[in-house]
């Protein structure tokens, strides 16, 4: 695998995740009670034996740099191993932020050069999935492809317009030549969605990026793939298995909920995910203590929490405190969230360090289909206030910021 | 604190812990879900700002050495920060095990003389407590002492198990009784000593005697300034099954003052050698968990009550775990009942088996002093077959499998099942 270099696109902010990405890129958003979103791609690389990666990051990279720790959590530190964060830089002529996914890779062609890889595996750091990249790379080599794009079958047609869609000739079980490709069409045209996982033969990557650099738009999906069809050997690889999106708050919530239930869709034991346990001192927290009058069901939690109240169908990150008489349902509570006595949370995501004061009520009546309520980092939701489902609360608010007794659906409190 | 060397005596057999120390030394016994006993002392050393540490091992050191690793879990890593594991070496004779605490330090005197230090801090890795040794070292220097001993008041009925000091108003120890039948004071030694390096080296070189409490301290009283550093707070010698069980359950009592996270106790999670990090705890629909401490990767379908679960424990549907301490990766299958039992790692309790119920007054026949209050021990890798009945005050040996059980699969109260 030392002929493969991975390039991870991890810099995007993605506005839809609203307050959760105010201080971190989407790839560093906490997920599943312990992890960051990028852990899934990193663990996939590790289990696939690909131990050299460049991480393209330009939006608030501190959290990500801290988390990746040069690759140490995934055993990628060593003479032939390493994870390198590649922020945008001032060039000789142009000083520029990455103008798109293709431009980000283009600006780092010299980095790729240094490793002299046969293949470049381009991934995005924002998806929750388990994939062994080796069969994909084998497929690519077997067909002597210049570019292979990985796809998943679209089952839920409502979101189809958000993906690149491909038509794949069925040459074998894993797919075949990519016949046509359309980036984010208005409706469902082909039932296979791009996973934004690309394998390039290196000379071809250099060639198409050099050509693209002269143009005005620099995205792999929109600009590179369509232009390569019919000119290069472009293949589509069909990936089968769970695929979790986190592009919108609703998707992010749903993907978290996929960890729950009698038979969870995401089987963490089988997936063998690694994370950085030093980040937020996760490793130094004691086992979670559950109180004598607690009720807890269908829930995930890690170390350092204290659960004295009622928690159902929820995900708790380390250090969460749920006081006696508090109720938490269908919610995702990030690090060190405190839910005080008598508070009620339903279908709510709270960022790190949020305090829900006694008797506050968020998202009541949302049910499984109502909108998600989101509370930004370290905000303190005032005692007794009533927040309807679907309200967005900005970070760092003090209780005084809640001037009214109640807030209706869709409101943004800042 | 860069001029202090810490020497941690981690060789203790801890035989009263019975089968829990069959495969490991006492300091390596798991405690409180995710910790090992030695984590408390090692973390105290780290948090006191000491950075030169020697760990003296002797008895079954493998799991201890794995656990300490390169010391990075406690931040003992850097140009002048390290933890060195010192195994016993053969001396003049073919077989030269340590004969006592002082002998262990004497045999490793080179470690101390090979580097500069003003003081040597001598610790044992057997206790659960929080202490800032920097305070004790400052006290030692303020008093211009040659020897300082950390001491705490213990119940009078326990004084015969400790070294007992009689002190004057200034804190200076004027008399010493090692495990006295009738004590004149209840101020007991915790086995934590600060020595002036010069004094320690000279004494160990010139004087015989293998034990600090028995030989070195009584002598020091006559020729040096020996002070008692008073300690108050949570401190447990978890050297008996009973004390071990009680201290574990202290985690569940907010009033117990056992708060490892607040004490900044670190452990080494890498030592398990897993290729992944243990995932969060999964509490399934229909499960019930109350008054318990639960570690990562536990999977719970049944009922858990007043218990401490280490990482990776599985509790099946309809199973009940009550008043118990369950270590890593043990499986308690559906409808099984476990009560007042300490279960070591990677045990399987078969479906419908009942463990730990019976007549608590019937002490264990082989070890009546180890098991007498209605506790049961199940050793590492043991198997309790489906439907089996294991009474109370029982011991199931490590690696017991189906072939060791009779047809009835019953182990009566107070009995031991060996391999």
Question: Can you describe what's shown?
Answer:
The complex is a heterodimer of chains A (414) and B (419). Chain A is 18% helix and 27% strand. Chain A is an alpha/beta fold and 414 residues long. In chain A, α2 links the parallel β4 (52-56) and β5 (82-86). Chain A is elongated, with a radius of gyration of 22 Å. Chain B is α/β, with parallel strands linked by helices and 419 residues long.
Alpha-beta classification of chain A: alpha/beta
Main beta sheet strand tally, sense and closure of chain B: 7 strands, mixed
- Average pLDDT for all residues of chain B: 94
In spatial order, strands of the major sheet of chain A run 15-18-21-24-27-30-32
Q: Report the total helices of chain A.
A: 9
If you compute it from the alpha carbons, what radius of gyration of chain A comes out, rounded to the nearest whole angstrom?
A: 22 Å
Strand content of chain A: 25-35%
Judged by helices, strands and strand pairing, the structural class of chain B is: alpha/beta
